[in-house]
Amino acid sequence: MKNSLNSLTLLLPLFFLFSCSAPQTAVEETPPTVSKNTGTDISATAALSLKEEFQPTADKDTNANSQSCNNEQVKLTSDFAAGRMDECKRTGEYEYSITLVPENTPINSSPWYAFKIQAKQVTDITITMQVQGDKHRYPPKISRDGNKSWQLQDYQLKGERLIMKVKASPQSVTIAAQEIINNQYYVDWAEELTVQSAFTQSILGLSTQGRPIYKIESRDENSNEWVVILGRQHPPEVTGALALFPFVETLLSESELSKYFLRKYNVLVIPNINPDGVHAGNWRSNANGMDLNRDWNDFSQIETQLINDYLKGLVAQGQKIKFAVDFHSTKNDIFYTMPVDYGVESSYFVRHWLGELDRQMPNFNVVLRPGNNPNLGVSKQYFSDQFGVHAITYEMGDNTDRTKIKRIAFKSANILMINMLSETDHDKE
């Protein structure tokens, strides 16, 4: 097992190797992807124009954090779902300054931004971005086709200022920290996943601001064991979402392995736990300014309460939680696990699973970081303490090649199924 953390922080465009091939799953639609080639496009999920069963208290098409910088020739706006550029001002004829401000402090360093640029005629503009009390984490991406495909936007770092020159035109472009995957994207993706299958999408409950929190389920009446998949506790962690999609698609595919797996195990997917934070473009928190992945002890927030209540309800019905994966992003690819001697069942299961992933992907450095933090309030610890089972935090690097993310997800999901179906004694190393 390769246990050393790669210390290289991929910040400069030179290190971006993103590409756009389709995932190796039965589901054809793929999330928006970044490419170095400005001519490379991919399919976006078809717009289904679904009307949500519940309307949030905040209008879903506007954003409380929206700002605008307008003059007669050029306008910069963030009045859309997931848009954010907290403070914007015009500093010259075609020069603009944007300041990114966290929703609260102290906070994890994940400054999110997303805004649109449009001009009456082709105009070269300069944008300078800085972060209040922090520094930049995400290099800018640009979409020229309505957020269907993304390319890296050229920029310079001068101290803590990020400077980019953009050619504005009558055709609106979007600049964002990462690919924009908003709340509606999840609904559309789940519809595609469930439309011609026995899988169901339903509303688990409502967020703090009244937005639906959806769950997807594959349930066999002859099975009582559950695999739980969680995602998007932290809004900017888009590469976690880019891993969750193909991972879930692989588990719920039409492959013979998947069919066999789904006869033995039920699957619960809650892909977007924090829809209010996603909508607002928050750095970390839900609408109450709380980090949801620190609330799995106290359950002070409705989002974590809903999941805890649902899982306990399953157990009360004689069901069993068997394993859980929580998808996130950080600067490097890493799997946070529980220690083998912590006392959960099948002590070596995760080590066997990820050890096989390490063997099958020699060019991918599988890094395991076991940890036990009972007072931290993270989901991984919650599953182990509450249900006595393994759980992991599956982290993809902010700048990891997007095709590589898909390959890792496809391979890790398949190996997971094989390991959970095998007769291997996971209590032995």
TrEMBL record:
GO terms (BP aspect): proteolysis
Active site: E395
GO molecular function: metallocarboxypeptidase activity; zinc ion binding
Signal sequence interval, chain numbering: 1-26
Entry keyword annotation includes Protease: yes
Family matches, as Pfam families: Peptidase_M14 (PF00246)
InterPro entries named among the record's database cross-references: Cytosolic_carboxypeptidase, Peptidase_M14
Entry's transmembrane regions: none
CC cofactor: Zn(2+)
Keyword line: Carboxypeptidase, Hydrolase, Protease, Signal
Residue ranges annotated for the Peptidase M14 domain, each copy included: 179-425
Entry-linked CDD domains: M14_Nna1-like
UniProt keyword Signal present: yes
Family, per entry: Belongs to the peptidase M14 family.
UniProt name for this protein: Zinc carboxypeptidase family protein
Organism: Colwellia psychrerythraea (strain 34H / ATCC BAA-681)
